[in-house]
Amino acid sequence: MSLSPKWKEKQAEVAAFLETIKDAPDAPRAYTFTREQLEKMLTCNGKKLDGIRFYFGQKKDKKGKTQMTLVAVGCTKDA
């Protein structure tokens, strides 16, 4: 999968984040969503939504250890 040309501009931000989590080796470093996954998030109960909102969260892994996660949900413009 290739990256957007804007990736070059954002690398410093990502590097700064990685520096803050260097002591958390199990923390996720990135998430990838396919076009199909994004399109599915933009449709809810047959209704077309306007965008996707991302939240940071926590969840337990299979060993019961707490990990950061990214939660993505479809939303409308007025939400």
Produce a short descriptive summary:
The chain is α+β, with helices and mostly antiparallel strands and 79 residues long. It has helices spanning 7-20, 35-41; strands at 43-44, 47-48, 51-60, 66-75. 0% of the residues are buried.
Describe the protein's topology.
Elements: H1 7-20, H2 35-41, E1 43-44, E2 47-48, E3 51-60, E4 66-75
Antiparallel strand pairs: 1-2, 3-4
Q: Helices and strands: which structural class?
A: alpha+beta
Strand line-up in the sheet with most strands: 1-2
What is the residue-mean pLDDT, rounded to a whole number? Answer: 85
Rg on CA atoms, Å: 15 Å
Estimate percent helicity. 25-40%
Q: What report would you give on this structure?
A:
There is one protein chain. The protein is 27% helix and 30% strand. It is an alpha+beta fold and 79 residues long. The protein has a two-stranded antiparallel sheet with strand order 1-2. The chain is globular, with a radius of gyration of 15 Å. The mean pLDDT is 85.
Highlighted features:
79 residues, alpha+beta, two-stranded antiparallel ribbon, 2 helices, 4 strands, globular
